[in-house]
């Protein structure tokens, strides 16, 4: 493993070329559930600087990342090479969720150069990267990338803004550990 001072040109190129990445967060203390989520879709991840990245967080079945970030801010993003030379890059840092209901959301959304339809985005996850490392990835399998799925975008396109607010209020009201997330009406 090698620790890097920042997200430099080579690492940035590698990160931006990956069609998917994984996000890991955990609650504070010994209790609660650790969460790992796969993320993808072209245009939903952005390197904003040598120590800052962000991704678009779409409405989904849970909101563990948002709950954990609200509680302690700890987050790790992992990018694996499934094609080409083996490599794994991890970005450790402090993150925050900026919900669609916050005034700052629109400005952060503009930092994504070519996002897909943003109608179903519930927040931008903004990460201050504190540690950058890469490792060999020799055991990561070789897999072919066929393309992005469009099911999430099609699902959200059928919902109005009010429908999405209700979705957050009902389906994302609390984490699996009972931590309130979108319990209030937007």
From TrEMBL:
SUPFAM superfamilies per the UniProt record, alphabetical: FMN-binding split barrel
Pyridoxamine 5'-phosphate oxidase N-terminal domain sequence ranges: 9-134
Gene3D superfamilies to which the protein is assigned, alphabetical: Electron Transport, Fmn-binding Protein, Chain A (2.30.110.10)
InterPro entries: Pyridox_Oxase_N, Split_barrel_FMN-bd
Name of this chain's protein: Pyridoxamine 5'-phosphate oxidase
